[in-house]
């Protein structure tokens, strides 16, 4: 009898835990809409990056933070703008591409985007690739990047 009760309790707990995990993935209708908005913003990001357009910082919140590997965090739009200007003037990178794998969260104020990225040389050759997590924040003007963290799939040279 005790064994049956214990088994029933474990099954009920697993049902609720599994149900809560499933409710917070891209499959919910609200998150599918948010995923589409994020993919549209990412497409704009690619375009602005390729044009070396400083307006790219407007895709970030005012208090955004870029968490790049092997360097201190870059915080705020002013610092982000300088970082993009330095990248653009360096001339080593022509374009970037993100592929969203999943969106997590409740969609009320924040969502997390998980995916992979690629960076290309001016010749179009793949320079590097890796994975990322972005924390998006809902603002008065829509979803914007609040935290941006990424790393390479390859060892540092």
List the topology elements.
Blueprint: H1 2-23, H2 29-50, E1 60-67, E2 74-75, H3 77-90, E3 95-104, E4 110-120, E5 126-139, E6 142-152
Parallel strand pairs: 1-6
Antiparallel strand pairs: 1-2, 3-4, 4-5, 5-6
Strand order of the largest sheet: 2-1-6-5-4-3
Task: Specify the number of helices.
Answer: 3
| Domains (count) | 1
Class by helix and strand content? alpha+beta
Mean pLDDT: 87
What is the CA–CA distance across the termini?
62 Å
CATH class: Alpha Beta
Provide the CATH topology: Nuclear Transport Factor 2, Chain: A
Task: Outline the low-pLDDT stretches.
Answer: 17-23
The main sheet comes to:
6 strands, mixed
Q: What is the total tally of β strands? A: 6
CATH architecture name: Roll
Cα shape: globular
Taking all Cα atoms into account, the compactness measure Rg is 20 Å
Helical content (DSSP H or I, runs of 4+): 25-40%
Strand content: 35-45%
SSE order in H/E notation? HHEEHEEEE
Describe the structure.
37% of the residues lie in helices and 36% in strands. It has 157 residues and is an alpha+beta fold. The chain has a single domain (23-152), classed as Nuclear Transport Factor 2, Chain: A (Roll). Strands 2-1-6-5-4-3 form a 6-stranded mixed β-sheet, with helices on one face. It is globular and about 40 Å long. Mean pLDDT is 87; it is low at 17-23.
């Amino acid at each position: 009898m005790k064994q049956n009760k214990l088994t029933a309790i474990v099954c009920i707990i697993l049902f609720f835990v599994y149900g809560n995990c499933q409710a917070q993935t891209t499959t919910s209708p609200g998150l599918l809409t948010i995923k589409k908005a994020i993919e549209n913003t990412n497409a704009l990001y690619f375009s602005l990056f390729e044009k070396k357009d400083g307006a790219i910082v407007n895709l970030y919140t005012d208090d955004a933070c870029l968490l790049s590997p092997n360097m201190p965090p870059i915080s705020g739009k002013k610092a982000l703008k300088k970082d993009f200007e330095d990248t653009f003037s360096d001339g080593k990178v022509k374009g970037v591409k993100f592929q969203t794998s999943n969106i997590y969260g409740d969609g009320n104020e924040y969502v997390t985007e998980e995916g992979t990225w690629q960076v290309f040389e001016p010749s179009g050759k793949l320079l590097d690739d890796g994975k990322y997590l972005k924390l998006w924040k809902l603002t008065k003007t829509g979803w914007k990047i609040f935290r941006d963290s990424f790393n390479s799939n390859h060892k540092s040279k």
